[in-house]
Predict the structure.
Amino acid sequence: MQKDELYITASLARLELTEKEADTLSQAVSQMIEYFSMMEKIDVTGLEPTTHVSIGENRVRKDEVIESTLAERMIEAAPERDERFITVPHIL
């Protein structure tokens, strides 16, 4: 990318560039454009567009209701409780 194009783009984005930043960005943008032009040559005929590389099916388990007594066992194991609540001593 030419520096004058870079300065125009920077001014449109309301950015100020130093000469050193312009040199660095000019090279980086040129490399990106070169890479994109290489990608343009790839034949993608017949390929479906995707939003994620590994979309196939959902990898999470099914949502199933499972009976659990864990909460009741925890409350029963507490040294002090008030009905279904665990009593915690005051610290301060």
